[in-house]
User: What shape does this take?
Amino acid sequence: MAKSDAENRKIQMADIARLAGVSISTVSRALSGSTLINEETRQRIAELAKSLSYTVNLGAKNLRSGENRTVGVVIPYLSDHRQHVTDPFFLAMLGSLADHLTDQNFDLLFSRIDARDIQNVAALYDSGRVCGIIIIGQWSQHDSLNQLARRQIPFVVWGGQLPQQMYCSVGSDNYNGGLLATTHLLQLGKQRVVFMGDRDATEAQQRYQGYVAAHAQMGKVLDPDLYLSCPFTEPEAQVAMAGFLAKGIAFDALFAASDLIAIHAMGVMRAQGLQVPQDVCVVGYDDVGMAAHSFPPLTTVSQPMDLAGEALVSSLLTVIRQGHADSRMITTALVERDSTRI
Amino acid sequence: MAKSDAENRKIQMADIARLAGVSISTVSRALSGSTLINEETRQRIAELAKSLSYTVNLGAKNLRSGENRTVGVVIPYLSDHRQHVTDPFFLAMLGSLADHLTDQNFDLLFSRIDARDIQNVAALYDSGRVCGIIIIGQWSQHDSLNQLARRQIPFVVWGGQLPQQMYCSVGSDNYNGGLLATTHLLQLGKQRVVFMGDRDATEAQQRYQGYVAAHAQMGKVLDPDLYLSCPFTEPEAQVAMAGFLAKGIAFDALFAASDLIAIHAMGVMRAQGLQVPQDVCVVGYDDVGMAAHSFPPLTTVSQPMDLAGEALVSSLLTVIRQGHADSRMITTALVERDSTRI
DNA sequence: CTGAAAGCGCTAACAG
DNA sequence: CTGTTAGCGCTTTCAG
Assistant: This one.
């Protein structure tokens, strides 16, 4: 069954050299487009290589030249919820990153790790597999991330800016997003706006601060009972909303820290006979593709994914090259849909 | 700004060896858990390595040992639609693959390529970056895939089985899925069921065949006008449905080749005043997370993603080891929701 | 049990 | 313009 070694062996530079009757160096030069090589020879070798569908062994090349064009992209998850990432936001981000990395001729090594063992990403770098890392989501691992930075691991994270941050983050303007969303609800005349999300996660926290600020600006008092703690995952969002409804706390609007949460919360509310937007107006965050197609279509805060991916990639490259890059914020915008049309 | 070489240089085996006062070979053996080494020495070296957070350089290790534990995962896309993958199905798949590959101690190299240049995936393998490739989605590239197989590239594809298939595919039972979905609609008394999808893409084609078979089994004649051609992308789905409605062809049910298509089609229908399920019953395919939260919640054909990822990974490993693996089918089930409750 | 030496596939001086 | 020579960081015979 197994082919003989000779038959199965991958073709390599030495083979091309022998076939072309030149030295290995010549092949190497020809294939890397060196200028100091006879054009005719270059052509001949290039064609030979193509006809044999030969591609330089990147591992060997990298080892020798010391470079590495693979970027690690990490989506942390919470292992105790023992479930897969399903938030469409992540796919959009991943796609955008893949596009921009490809544009820059980088490979993307995708890795999932437990959010609480974020130190593990260091191994990706230490082992030489990647030249830098993009971490999607800060969770509540600010200190861990600072430690990584102290270790000089080149990485950037998608998330919010924090005081005493030693690493580069790129994120949407969470504070302003929260402000926009909440102001919108308050201007609709809503009196009791629930915030649903995890204040311990940096991004959600900043959205929450925007929510608080909106109340302050409008001169509204904020009832602490209106904070509904909930992680960024679907079943938990449903459980959280069900529990909240069971408590019977009055509310007439909901600002959720992500579209996924918002949409699942709406499902629970509807099941309990609450109408959106008549009884409760809802605003989400992210503007994932489905937001326009939920029931009802969801008003949300959009973050331009394409810009986000581009910013993350370019910031990472800067970190790699200069050892540091300034954190950046991507502007957000409110997208109004039926879930707040009353 | 830039650190001196000495400061920035990554630590390596030689350093550990020097610090431990042993030879490089000893370190190598200690770290790879060789049996023929003094336990005390092993411990000492292991601790030293950990304290310096040293990890073997995988590139060098692979080059020397000839192995490679990186699998390429490719999501082809249509470059002319110049847009990102947004179908949540892909994220679910990717997450599942990442989990199962991680379990088996493989890395995942994520790559997007133009569906029509599927030959390009060969370069991933030729360049030695990956030991095998998982291609998500067959598109209409059956022949190209056969060519890859002929070139002995180890890969498996998520898709349907086709006659004269020289490669291993893993997929849901598309035919049966189509049959289930359509039978469900016909049993509801629906007379004119539209099929929306791309018959040129293998998977959609097989779902279509199930759709045809359902009509045959129920003794219904099938109007060719009820085939609505549409790729697996959102804007196209909307355009296609809008165009279909404009033609004024009567229909009372819709079976879409994916949830994404179904949900976006429902959006267009609603905008034109058609009610789901009262006027049109709709069934999708995939059972993505959002399907339960669309408006209305979508009846769909579910494919167990976890099994799918596992099957793809194990089949690929078999292909790598034995040069061949039998194609597999994952069972599907109909999930009934409001979009077909009349 | 441990060290010395060879070499994985490639690039990059260094000599022609 | 081209070939020769040394390694990149590691594993693995082969001798102790």
Notes: Chain A touches chain B through 63 residues (CB under 8 Å).
